[in-house]
Amino acid sequence: MIRELFERSVIFGAGGGGDVVSAYVVCELLKSVYGVSSCLPGAVLWERWVVDPYPGPIPRHLIRNAVVENCVYVGSNTYAERSGRVVRLTSAAVAEVAGVEVPSVTLEYGVVGIRKCFDELAGEGWRIVLLDVGGDILARGTEGGLWSPLADSLSLAAASEIDAPLVVLAPGADGELDVDYVVSRVAEVQVLGGLYGVIGLWVDLVRTYESILPKVTSEASRVPYIALKGQIGEVKMRGGSRRTYIGPLSLVGFVLSSKVAAAISPLAKALAGTRSLAEARKAVNLIGVATELDMEIELAKIVGCGRPASGDDYIKAREIARRKLASPS
Question: Which of 73, 152, 221, 316 could form a disulfide bond with 22, CB atoms 3.0-4.6 angstroms apart?
Answer without folding.
Answer: 221
